[in-house]
Amino acid sequence: MTVRSEIVAQFAQVAREHDKALAPLTDDLELLDSGLDSLCFAVVVARLEDLLEVDPFSASEDVLFPVTFGEFVGLYEHAEK
Amino acid sequence: MPRSSHASLWNALSAKSDLSDRFVIGAKSRVALGQMMAGSAIDGRGEDLRGRSVLVMTRDQFTAALVLLELDGIARRLILYPPDLPLEYLPFVIKSASVDAIVSDRTDFGPNISGVRYIMPCGHTIMSQSCDRSAQYRTEWILLTSGTLGLPKVVVHTLSSLTAAIERPGAPAGKVVWSTFYDIRRYGGLQIFLRAILTGTSLVLSDAKESIADFLARAGSDGVSHISGTPSHWRRALMSPSVHRIAPENIRLSGEIADQGILNQLRSVYPQSKIVHAFASTEAGVAFEVSDGLAGFPASAIEHTPNVEMKVADGTLRIRSAGTASGYRGDEAPMLKAADGFVDTGDMVEPRGDRYYFVGRRDGLINVGGRKVHPEEVEAVINRHPEVHMSLVRAKKNPVVGAIVVADVVLRTASQADGRDARAVQSDILLFCRQTLSSHKVPAAINFVPALAVAESGKMMRGHA
After folding, report:
1. Chain A partners of B404 at a C-beta cutoff of 8 Å?
2. Of the candidates A43, A50, A55, which has its C-beta nearest B404's C-beta?
3. Claim to verify: residue B394 and residue B310 sit in the same structural domain
4. Is residue B356 situated within a structural domain?
5. d(CA B50, CA B47)
6. Are residues B318 and B381 part of one domain?
7. Domain residues for B405?
8. Closest CA in chain B for residue A56
9. Which CATH number belongs to the domain containing residue B156 in this structure?
10. What pLDDT, on a 0 to 100 scale, did the predictor assign at position B30?
């Protein structure tokens, strides 16, 4: 699985678990409009850390949480293990 | 800092000279502070509630704000039902706080409201009718916080303990407009509501049904100058392009540990703002504020915080001040204060250089975006699964909500911890949790482990979160 497909799968999985309707995951979709809430994003990030063995947010204290889905994917694609 | 010198919120507001352009502002309506003083959100029936123990249980916080201002000084006791507390706890709350009247815009109470003499409707429109204020009660204020096994803890305050940390400037408040991401029926939000009323400033309230973008746009157009929230509220705001719709002079964080990351990010988005993080809890009150932009707090705060005594004993922060709650109500309620009057916050602190840093909770309590999770409650649910031998629920650091819940589980048959069976048990346990627990209490991950460390006391060892 690519990083992107793993992320897409996790968004879908967490949306199902939390009974949320997920918007189509285009790159310019704002995460706050995706249908997921803060808790869902928290779970997605925790699961991705286990699956991809990266936590892009731990690299620096100043990593801002991304605004769009494309930025979110980019953050993981460019994260160092 | 002056202590509360007013008999009631109404008296505090009536002492203000000019309230003409000051409002409480909700998503759908607004009401002038002056109009609130002269009117009623309960159809002028305040007299029926005089001296009663009144539960305020409204759909939205805007209506709660109107009712609280009206009934402080009239009711003997006001109990604030938090927005996300399930209805099943209503009988417990009624019993613990001896509720004999409910003010509500709801009718879905179910069968369990025995002992309640009055159910009084309320609304967000103000009728111009007011109560006789010549004799007033020193109303007891009751807040509900999460307890170990799901039942809420019933915390007793007074207007003077709730407002002990609020400075009241002699001069008019000028252009100050307060807002908060919190709900005012929780301690952090209530502080902001009381601050706005006592200082006679406008207050913009959030609405549970509104998007963060809409709230920020509304806060911006109403000129919000001071705004508070948890670090998780702020992280969510920073995910919205609308974060630039507000330009606050003063940003306040509380309710969770503020890490250096969120402080830096707020500094870069709002370079002109004064950014303060405060330590407060429902039980201990507001203890201190840190405004140097750094995580943790200066060691000097322990000795030199005005009107608040602090000490570190056995690794946790202890607080004694006029702002601490007086106790818990209810049968078998634990002691809130030690014999010397200090409240043990349960927050473990560690000195590094000339600062103290928060390093977790002694009781393993997990703070998920400002919402508390007692690990025992989650463990009790997991342990009901027939395949589970024992479990340990702990916090995992998270960049969105500060911390999330994860569970280490020991299965009855160790060999099952691999392969397909284990995955089936894992999703089974999660399903089990989702059916019984609020979503923030459901573990994000279930890890199967061969064993868990048990201390000599027989209790599981809870590591530092």
Report:
1. 39, 42-43, 46
2. A43
3. no
4. no
5. 5
6. no
7. 365-448
8. B399
9. 3.40.50.12780
10. 94
A-B CB pairs within 8 A amount to: 71
Q: Which of B240, B261, B398 sits opposite A45 (nearest CB)?
A: B398
Q: CA dist B242 to A28, A67, B178, B215, B247, Å?
A: 16, 11, 18, 9, 11
Same domain, B270 and B387: no
Question: Is the same domain home to B269 and B403?
Answer: no
Q: Which of A 10-69 lie inside 8 A of B, CB atoms?
A: 17-18, 30-32, 38-39, 41-43, 45-47, 50, 55, 57-58, 61-67
Which residues sit opposite B156 in a β-bridge?
Answer: B142, B327
Per-residue confidence (pLDDT) for residue B463, from 0 to 100: 60
Residue B284 and residue B347 in one domain: yes
Residues B323-366 pLDDT 10s: 999 999 987 788 899 999 999 999 999 999 999 999 888 888 99
Q: d(Cα B222, Cα A45) in Å, to the nearest integer?
A: 35
Q: Six-digit token pair at B59?
A: 């759909």
Residue B301 included in any domain:
yes
Predicted confidence at residue B460, as pLDDT, reads 72
Per-residue model confidence (pLDDT) at position A81 = 66
The CATH number covering residue B438 comes to: 3.30.300.30
B79 within 8 A of B68, measured Cβ to Cβ: no
| DSSP one-letter string for A39-64 | HHHHHHHHHHHHHH---GGGS-TTPP
Check pLDDT > 90 for residue B147.
Answer: no
- Could you tell me if residue B458 is inside a domain? no
Task: For residue B171, count other CB atoms closer than 10 A to its CB.
Answer: 5
pTM of the shown model: 0.90
Interface predicted TM-score of the whole assembly (ipTM), two decimals: 0.94
Tens digits of residue pLDDT in A21-38: 999 999 999 999 999 999
Helix (H, G, I), strand (E, B) or coil at B391: strand
From A51's Cα to the closest Cα of chain B, the distance in A is: 11
Q: Are residues B346 and B433 in the same domain?
A: no
| Cα A29–Cα A34–Cα A36 angle in degrees, nearest 5 | 150
Q: Which residue of B has its CA nearest to A72?
A: B239
Distance CA B238, CA A64 (A): 8
In a domain, B387, yes or no: yes
Do B219 and B92 fall into the same domain? yes
Mutate to test the interface with B, among A33, A37, A39 (most CBs of B within 10 A): A39
Number of domains in chain B: 2
Q: Is the pLDDT of residue B171 over 90?
A: no
The answer to whether the CB atoms of B398 and A61 lie below 8 A apart is: no
Tell me: do B88 and B219 sit in the same domain.
Answer: yes
Which residue has 């482990």 as its token pair? B449
Residues of B in contact with A66 (CB under 8 A): 239
Cβ contacts of B274 within 8 Å, gap of 6 or more: B249, B250, B251, B291
